[in-house]
Amino acid sequence: MRNGGVSFWWQQVGLPSPTDRLDGDVTCDVAIVGAGLTGLWTAHYLHEADPTLDIRVIEAEFAGFGASGRNGGWLSSELPGNASAYAAQAGEDGVERLRAAVRATVDEVIDVAAREGIDADIVRSGVLHVARSQAQAERLDGELSATQVAERIRVADAVSGHFDPDCARLHPAKLVSGVARVVRERGVRIHEGTRAVAIEPGAVVTDRGTVRASVVLRCLEGFTAGLSGHRREWLPMNSAIVATAPLTDAQWREIGWSGAELLGDEAHAYCYAQRTADGRIAMGGRGVPYRFRSRTDVDGRTQDWTVESLRSTLTTLFPSLAGVAIDHAWCGVLGVPRDWSASVSFDPATGLGHAGGYVGSGLTATNLAGRTLRDLVRGEDTDLTRLPWTNHRVRRWEPEPLRWAGVHTLYRLYRAADRREDAGLERTSRIARVAHRVAGR
Ligand SMILES: Cc1cc2nc3c(=O)[nH]c(=O)nc-3n(C[C@H](O)[C@H](O)[C@H](O)COP(=O)(O)OP(=O)(O)OC[C@H]3O[C@@H](n4cnc5c(N)ncnc54)[C@H](O)[C@@H]3O)c2cc1C
Fold first, then answer.
1. Quick check: 130 and 149 in contact, CB under 8 A?
2. How many domains does the chain have?
3. pLDDT tens track for 6-42
4. What is the CATH number of the domain that holds 317?
5. Ligand 1 atom 15, closest CA
6. What is the CATH number of the domain that holds 220?
7. Mean pLDDT of the region 138-154
8. Does any ligand 1 atom lie closer than 6 A to the CB of residue 334?
9. Which chain positions lie within coiled-coil regions (predicted)?
10. Helices 37-49 & 362-377 angle (0-180, nearest 10)
């Protein structure tokens, strides 16, 4: 089994070497820090709106090195973040507008990919959420019976399910490298191998020179804490994935997974899975949730404990796959704000802006955030700039060691709640409710 190497997705398409490193000081119109999907979509839509803009993207490694090239490939219509936090800012109507905008964005991504010739193994196959205990079923409130779930995928001990058709399966590295290619072809410079060390109004200071620009956009998601002055802003939460060896036709038949629908459960320490285009199961989950002092992994290597825990989840859902080999394991970080809700912000007075904090549902949200940042930077008042995540403010995380102790306690509580629910508890465990309160969700 390979562990790390950034991700299985990148190993499949080939790890790129950084290109177009910054070579001394430059001046441009817009400087974007971070070449994940947030930064790249923002560059794409800003350039489309005004092709005369000189846009530079500053990237420490290579475009797609972060979560955008490592994720589970769920292009999903799920709300990125906590509905009650958005409702506090913009009421229920605001939450519904955000939900509708995210849902419509699934098609926007699919359309752009088709238009621009990005082949990212996209199938608009929907997602099957499965409840495996009475407590999970109560939370899910799904319309599918156990028999109907089994007609789609035979998950052991499924009690009920919910199918959301507005969701697509994709190959993360193919999508992000495709978007990077498109923006480069339009003339946007992506300065890879160039690390930002500080951001200030009018400038990005990097290890290879200073980029001066009247607009500076921070798009660093789980890496935000690495930037001076932002350590306690968004917590870098780990997520890890294992990819099995290709399954045989008989194995696929045995588990009844004949389509490309995505699959997730309703545990508190939930799992998410996809059937890859080359016939594997890629299954992800939390594992070790957080590293002390907001450290991030080096090249996607994850802990052995996490690999074993994901292997165990896989065989709990599909006992017939007990002997199947795991070919690859990796992890990455996502950005978690203190109220578990994303924000897209821009201050015209300073020219500083940012987007992120999607808490694990960023694949669709990055595109919506990119279009929202475009409108904010251009000073336009649109349906997008009126969404409740615009200029959403949130307090910072606690200092260490409280932050580390808090997050680890939280996930111990979630795992304890899952164990009690698996043992037959009929309602959501009180332990999970306490954990939610501790988390501030
Ligand atoms: C394992 C995993 C599974 C996931 N699964 C899903 C999923 O199935 N569906 C879903 O919707 N979401 C999923 N997510 C979340 C989703 O991938 C992210 O929300 C999304 O990719 C965030 O994109 P981004 O561009 O904001 O950040 P990133 O893609 O992380 O990009 C940030 C970039 O900044 C660069 N960088 C870091 N520090 C610096 C610096 N100092 N200077 C310059 N550049 C820097 C990094 O190298 C990186 O390229 C998952 C995340 C992980 C980690």
1. yes
2. 2
3. 999 999 999 999 999 999 999 999 999 999 999 999 9
4. 3.30.9.10
5. 360
6. 3.50.50.60
7. 97
8. yes
9. none
10. 40
Q: For residue 99, what pLDDT is reported?
A: 97
Contacts of 401 (CB under 8 A, 6+ apart): 292
Collapsing DSSP states into helix, strand and coil, what is residue 401? coil
The mean pLDDT value for 330-348 works out to 96
CB 68 less than 6 A from any atom of ligand 1: yes
Structural tokens at position 140? 């899910």
Three-state DSSP state, 440: coil
For a mutational test of ligand 1's pocket, the pick from 20, 68, 366, i.e. the residue with the most ligand atoms closer than 8 A to its C-beta, is: 68
Interval 37-64 mean pLDDT: 98
Question: To which H or E segment does residue 135 belong?
Answer: helix 134-140
More confident residue, 367 or 423: 367
Mean confidence (pLDDT) of the chain: 96
Q: β-pairing, 262-265 with 343-347? A: unpaired
- Among 321, 349, 377, the domain-final residue is 377
- Predicted confidence at residue 437, as pLDDT, reads 80
User: How many Å lie between the centroid of ligand 1 and the Cα of residue 155?
Assistant: 30
| Cβ of residue 439 lying under 6 Å from some atom of ligand 1 | no
Closest CA to 219 of 238, 196, 239: 196
* Contact 59 CB / ligand 1 (< 6 Å): yes
119-147 burial code (b ≥16 CB/10 A, e <16): ebbbbebbbbbbbbbebbbbbbebebeee
Q: Please check the confidence at residue 118 and state whether its pLDDT lies above 90.
A: yes
- Decide if 391 is inside a domain: no
Residue holding tokens 């994850």? Answer: 302
CA 423 to centroid of ligand 1, rounded, Å? 35
What percent of the chain is modeled with pLDDT above 90? 88
What pLDDT does 278 receive?
A: 98
Q: What is the extent of the structural domain holding 154? A: 127-164+235-335
Q: Is 294 in the pocket of ligand 1 (CB under 6 A)?
A: no
The answer on 228 and 195 residing in a single domain is: yes
**260: number of Cβ within 10 Å:** 18
For residue 107 the two structure tokens come to 């098609």
